[in-house]
Automatic annotation (TrEMBL):
Keyword Transferase assigned: yes
Name of the featured protein: Rna-directed dna polymerase from mobile element jockey-like
Keywords: Nucleotidyltransferase, RNA-directed DNA polymerase, Transferase
GO cellular component terms attached to this protein's record: extracellular matrix
Domain of life, per lineage: Eukaryota
Taxonomic source organism: Limosa lapponica baueri
Gene Ontology molecular function: any one: RNA-directed DNA polymerase activity
Residue ranges the record marks as coiled coil: none
Gene Ontology BP terms: cell adhesion involved in heart morphogenesis; larval heart development
The keyword Transferase appears for this protein: yes
PANTHER family per the UniProt record, alphabetical: REVERSE TRANSCRIPTASE DOMAIN-CONTAINING PROTEIN, TRANSCRIPTASE, PUTATIVE-RELATED-RELATED
């Protein structure tokens, strides 16, 4: 199957699973569980001494150290940002309410041309998920706590071009939770 047909078939399958979730919960959650598996796709890497690193844990540490340099103050100094008046400190009594209509609108605005995946199905499941999400969002506003899954990101090194063993030929892709993005 070529890329376009495969994407359409996948989107069609995911749409069918989303629509039938009430009658086929097991099939839906099996599919979601399968999407959470990781792939081992980083080839052996060269460390700073020129030795080849083969073990996954060592490759992860090597990539971690390399990409940590991206987030240092030396790499991109930034001026402290002033809070706008609209971003005032909320008192518990004055917190904005999270309405179902707001959540439904956010769900309807999710990109249809992006990868559906487990989170992307939220758009198709808006009628089913709007009430639980609005409750979670509201409780999160009130308590200041966010579900742990929404704070985690799946960070994957993706090979760009050049020698696969060279760290500089990888870039990071961070997959974060859509409800977490909506909450922001």
């Amino acid at each position: 199957m070529c890329g376009g047909k495969k994407r359409k078939a996948t989107a069609s399958l995911e749409l069918k699973l989303a629509r039938d979730v009430k009658v086929n919960k097991k099939g839906f959650f099996n599919y979601i569980g399968g999407k959470r598996t990781t792939r081992k796709n980083v080839s052996p890497l060269l460390n700073d001494t020129g030795a080849m690193v083969m073990k996954d844990a060592e490759k992860a540490e090597l990539l971690n150290v390399f990409f940590a340099t991206v987030f240092t103050a030396h790499a991109s100094p930034q001026e402290p940002q002033n809070l706008e008046e609209s971003e005032k400190d909320w008192t518990k009594e004055a917190l904005p309410l999270v309405q179902k209509d707001q959540v439904k609108e956010q769900l309807s605005e999710l990109g249809t041309h992006k990868s559906m995946g487990p989170d992307g199905m939220l758009r198709e499941l808006a009628e089913v998920t709007v009430v639980p999400l609005s409750i979670i969002f509201e409780r999160s506003w009130r308590t200041g706590e966010v579900p742990e899954d929404w704070r985690e990101a799946n960070v994957i090194p993706v090979f760009k071009k050049g020698k696969k063993e060279d760290l500089e030929n990888y870039r990071l892709v961070s997959l974060t939770s859509i409800p977490g993005k909506m909450m922001e």
